[in-house]
Sequence to fold (344 residues):
Amino acid sequence: MKTQDFDFHLPPGLIAQFPAGQRTGSRLLYLDSIHNRWQDRVFSNLPDYLRAGDVMVFNDTQVIKARLFGKKDSGGKVEVMVERILDDRHVQAAIRASHAPRPNSTLLLADALPVTVIAREQEFYTLRFEHEKTAAELLERYGQLPLPPYINRPVTKADEARYQTVYARNAGAVAAPTAGLHFDTGMMDQLRAMDVMIAYVTLHVGAGTFQPVRVENIADHTMHRETYHIPQATVDAIGQAKQTGGRILAVGTTSLRALESCVAAHQGQLVAGYGDTRIFITPGYRFQVVERLLTNFHLPCSTLLMLVSAFAGMENIRRAYQHAVNERYRFFSYGDAMLIERKS
Fold:
């Protein structure tokens, strides 16, 4: 398949620059891929599509303040985007500068943090913070929230709350699992009262989620690496649902990727534990765990659009996305949501 098979025209005005007034105040497009039909709803209608015994799997990662600005020892300006924290002193990061910094050179970030450039591998650098505090503590104090590149405005104080899910608890992501941004504590309580099982995975979303596919043939694309954790409680909840007729709904592509990566790595079995994934889900992929997906609307020619096309069928997604454009749904991280029934 060609990357251009996943292109579509998106008017720039449909790219959401701010979140909805209320977390549950966005719109919801329900796509029934089995019967090739959709419904225009609002997000507060989501419980209408759930029943007792269903499992919803949320990604409980927390976005860190991963963006830092500073200068090289030569005086040139740099922007550092942390991709992942490696340990208390080391991070992996992308660096934007007029000239790439050399290994063993020093950066001064936020006018306060000396950082040594240790090594470079492809687009990422290994950096060492020369400070008594941990890298996580330093990012929290000196870093900025890394809003996506298509949000063309400065970060506000409100973003520090709204670009996190209400259930975020495991710090490490540099981008939010955006399908979860639509939930507030009231809806979470409502779902539990309906005996919908709430389960969690952790997948630390990397900046690679925003990278375009730059190859002509999608088979030539190399996926970015992300780390995930699946607790035993989540394995147990999904196992119980499979036995009793409950349906598995992944809240976001990151939750889906964690679950499907795990079974792919363990011969079809979902097991608790940690792992790294580079899974690239494209049309033709056979899903083994997830039957329903809640997600936002994705970028043209992106790996996430390829994933939902695999889940719903390419033609279903083309038609649904054209409908969303025509009806002026809001796209991307702060945009509206889509609930998809998997195409069998």
